[in-house]
Design brief:
A hairpin with a 2-residue loop joins strand 3 and strand 4. Helix content is 44%, strand content 27%. It has 82 residues and is of the alpha+beta class. It is globular, with a radius of gyration of 13 Å.
Length: 82
Amino acid sequence: MFTKKEKIQIEFCQNNLDRFTTDQTIAEYGKFLANPRIQYKEYECLSECKLCKETSYAKVNGQIMRGKDSHDLLDQLQEALK
């Protein structure tokens, strides 16, 4: 009846965020990450250098999730939270 939804763990690469986020998407990510069901951590590097140069990505519960751009990635992260 009252099923509690699990938290999701998200890991970000700081280099990737610097490369692909804009001022607008940073504000959108801030609102999203304020959700109490999200635990996140930013690392200087996640050792995914080839991927990091190509597209916006994050590790969600240990699995890589990538987007066409940072806004697309945010949309996917929001879907994962549902």
